[in-house]
Amino acid sequence: MQVRWSCEVDRHPQPTGGHISTEPRINDRIRVPEVRLVGPAGEQVGIVRIDDALRLARESELDLVEVAPMARPPVAKLMDYGKFKYENAQKARESRRNQTNTVIKEMKLRPKIDIHDYETKKGHVVRFLKAGDKVKITIMFRGREQSRPELGYNLLKKLAADVDEFGFVESSPKQDGRNMLMVLGPHKKKTEARAEASVERDRRMAERQAGQDEERNQLAEIRAQHAAAGPSAPRRRGPADNLDPDAEA
């Protein structure tokens, strides 16, 4: 019995895929017999042949843009496509600029922290909250401190009360192994905090510029006064000018 082995090569490989354009079809790239045409001001023109729609686009010096390709017939609009793309890019850029990125800062404390360290770390928490960021407060227990969780709880309550003007308790204190955690959220959104920081920065720059201008004006007035008084006469030298001040009497 003879067995023959054969190996056939796939002469029609499957496509590996490629870039799929997300740009709408415009002008001559629209290959349909007719479209539902919308005018440049949004007015409904009706169903027209593609040749007529392209002619209207040329006469209006606009582009014919397919805005709803899945409709039957597809919807096309007369518009300045270059301007349309530019405005959309500007809107997307502005949206990204105003997008708030949630940032969680972390501050670690000990249950028996001294007053100076507490005030320093509280200042950092206030700064984070004023900037519109959340803050996770971690109380770290060591050794026998683990048997007294009320120390950490009371410290977190005190901190929350001290920064109440700038933030609120978003997640109440809870035990997590050897640590106790609490999350504070800011009263102001990050965009509002950035806007206020920008206004404050501009105010400080204006005050600094005003101080520099005032100083220059005062210096100019002094110079003007000296110029108006004229050159001062030289002082006559007397015998005392020749005495050596270090010489003994």
Describe the model.
- Among the domains are: 27-81, Translation initiation factor 3 (IF-3), N-terminal domain (Ubiquitin-like (UB roll), Roll); 104-190, Translation Initiation Factor IF3 (2-Layer Sandwich), CATH 3.30.110.10.
- It is 39% helix and 21% strand.
- The protein contains 5 helices and 8 strands, in the order E-E-H-E-E-H-E-H-E-H-E-E-H.
- Strand 1 (34-38) and strand 2 form a beta hairpin.
- The chain starts with 33 loop residues before the first strand and ends in a 20-residue tail after the last helix.
- The model is unreliable at 1-13 (pLDDT under 50).
- GO terms for molecular function: ribosome binding; translation initiation factor activity.
- Residues 26-94 form the Translation initiation factor 3 N-terminal domain.
- Keywords: Cytoplasm, Initiation factor, Protein biosynthesis.
- It is found in: Cytoplasm.
Structural topology:
Layout: E1 34-38, E2 44-49, H1 50-59, E3 63-68, E4 75-79, H2 81-98, E5 104-109, H3 115-130, E6 134-140, H4 149-162, E7 167-176, E8 179-186, H5 190-229
Parallel strand pairs: 1-4, 5-6
Antiparallel strand pairs: 1-2, 3-4, 6-8, 7-8
Biased composition (Basic and acidic residues): 192-218
Region (Disordered): 176-249
Domain Translation initiation factor 3 C-terminal: 103-186
